[in-house]
Amino acid sequence: MDATLEPFGGRFIVHGSEAEVVENTWPGHLVMIEFPDMQQARAWYRSPAYQEILPLRTENSQSDVVLVDGVQHPHKATDVLE
Question: What would the pLDDT profile of 30-77 be if each residue is shown by its tens digit?
Fold first, then answer.
């Protein structure tokens, strides 16, 4: 997995940490990977190297995969209001 991230500038920022649920419920584990930009995240996901190992996850777990843009720093909560 790590080798598939490297060419796209990806790195784990959350992986295997214990989650403390303080509101509602959380169904399991959280893995968060950071990329320089959305283009690199998409390129990694579609890469032959990742697609080759993708069945290891999909055939052994139930999961959702979400690609989302992060915020630019500095950022305030009100920055997303129009």
Answer: 999 999 999 999 999 999 999 999 999 999 998 999 999 988 889 999
**CA 81 and chain centroid, separation:** 25
CA distances from 80 to 38, 43, 69, 73 (A): 18, 27, 13, 13
Tell me the CB-side half-sphere exposure of residue 15, using CA atoms within 13 A: 7
Q: What is the pTM of this model?
A: 0.84
Using the CB atoms, write b or e for 31-53: b if 16+ within 10 Å.
eebebeeeebbebbbeeeebeee
d(CA 14, CA 44): 18
